[in-house]
Amino acid sequence: MARVILADDHDLMRRLLRAVLSARPGLEVVGEAADGNEAIVLADTLAPDLVVLDLAMPGMDGLQVAGAVRAAHPECAILVLSAFEAEHVAEAALAAGADRYVEKAAGLHAAAEAAAALVSV
Q1: What is the pLDDT of residues 86-113, one digit of tens each?
Q2: Cα-atom radius of gyration of the chain, to the nearest Å?
Q3: Burial of residue 96, with CB atoms counted within 10 A of its CB: 0-12 exposed, 13-18 middle, 19 or more buried
Q4: 116 lies in a domain?
Q5: Domain containing 47 — which CATH number?
Q6: Residue 5 domain-assigned (yes or no)
Q7: Measured between alpha carbons, how far is 82 from 29 in angstroms, rounded to an integer?
C-alpha cells in the first residue's frame, strides 16, 4: 500500500482528492496539510511514498515544499497539481524536485492516474 500525503489550502480540493485517491487500490491517504509548512512536517513524520502538492499554498508554496521534500526524502515521489496552465510553471515544478506536474483542469481522475503511476500501483 502506497502512503500518500495531500497538501492543498482548499479543504474541498483535499476532500475530493482524498476520495478519488482512496478509491484506487494500492493508495492510502495518511495525512493532509493546508499549507506548505504543515506538508513538510507531515512528510518528515509520516514517511510517505507520495506527496501531492498544490502549487499555490500559504507559508511555503508547492515549489518550496517540493524542493524540501526532495532533499530530505529523495525516495518520495512528488506530484504537483495546479490551476496554472503555463508550460514554464510545469518546468519550474519539475526543476524544484517534482516528478510530475498535472493541471487541475485535467481533472481529479487524471491526478489519480498520475499518482498511481508514480508509485506503480
Answers
A1: 789 999 999 999 999 999 999 999 999 9
A2: 12
A3: buried
A4: no
A5: 3.40.50.2300
A6: yes
A7: 19
Per-residue H/E/C for 34-69: CCHHHHHHHHHHHCCCEEEEECCCCCCCHHHHHHHH
Question: DSSP character for 33?
Answer: E
Question: What is the rounded distance in angstroms from the CA atom of residue 36 to the CA atom of residue 61?
Answer: 6
Count of domains forming the chain: 1
Nearest C-alpha neighbor of 29 from the set 100, 119, 103, 106: 119
Hey, what amino acid is at 22?
S
Range of the domain at 35: 1-52+60-85
**94 domain residue, yes or no:** no
Is residue 59 within 8 Å of 36, Cβ to Cβ?
yes
121 touches 26 (CB < 8 A): yes
User: What span, in angstroms and rounded, lies between the C-alpha atoms of 78 and 67?
Assistant: 10
Distance CA 59, CA 72 (A): 18
Q: What is the tens place of the pLDDT at every residue in 32-87?
A: 999 999 999 999 999 999 999 999 999 999 999 999 999 999 999 999 999 887 78
Q: Tell me, yes or no, whether 69 lies in a domain.
A: yes
